[in-house]
Amino acid sequence: MLIRWHGHSCFEFGCEDGTIVVDPHDGKSIGIKAPSPASASVVLMTHDHYDHSASRVISGDFKEYLGKTGKFKCGPFEIEGFPSFHDEEQGAKRGLNTIYRFEMDGISVCHCGDLGAIPDDKVIDKIRNVDILFVPVGANYTMELPEVRTFINKVDPKVIVPMHYRVFGLCIAVLPLEDFLQMVPAENVDYVGNEIDLSYDELPEHSECWVFDR
């Protein structure tokens, strides 16, 4: 499976069966470069905010899903969406958010979108021990860092991928990555570059934090 970061919360997941892009942005609206995957077969959007739902910038004859919950199949991919909230007041401030879980090349992936509060135990049970967990760490619009730590401990993934944090040019007021990394032992952090191509056998035995750059 190939994983490529397109900035903010947008990630591309590719294999021989196709490509899934999650939470595309258009770049210019948030001050960074737009995503540029060659094409996609599936586009998943965790909620309808402009920095997560710009499917128009993605090329290819893809199927798109915005905030879809429950189990569904798109081509060879089996996907499940879990309801959650964009804030700590059950969506009263920022609305709903969908957590997506899917598998590709035998690797389980969970993308949390703009998760604003720790989801209920039923959702935690469905995503516990996922191989790779993509979690927002910039706070302000998502979980505060103490909640992020608690959430990660509950899920207990093999790999944590931080996203939705301050980078150069970003015009959204979120915390820098360094604030989150202060909670992670330095020996557990791996800087993987813009993309990584891996198989299940290459996943770490013990929890690691993978940092992508662009």
- Describe the largest sheet: 8 strands, mixed
Number of helices: 3
Distance between the termini: 19 Å
CATH topology: Metallo-beta-lactamase, Chain A
Point out poorly predicted stretches.
Answer: none
Rg over CA atoms: 16 Å
CATH class value:
Alpha Beta
- Quick one: how many beta strands? 14
Strand content: 25-35%
| Widest beta sheet: strand line-up | 6-7-8-9-10-11-14-12
State the order of secondary-structure elements, H for helix, E for strand.
Answer: EEEEEEEEEHEHEHEEE
Mean pLDDT: 96
Tally of separate domains? 1
A few lines on this structure:
It contains three helices and 14 strands.
Explained architecture:
The structure is a single chain. By secondary structure, this protein is mostly beta strands. It has one domain: Metallo-beta-lactamase, Chain A. It is 11% helix and 34% strand. The protein has 3 helices and 14 strands. The chain has an 8-stranded mixed sheet. β9, α1 and β10 form a beta-alpha-beta unit. The model has no long low-confidence stretch (mean pLDDT 96).
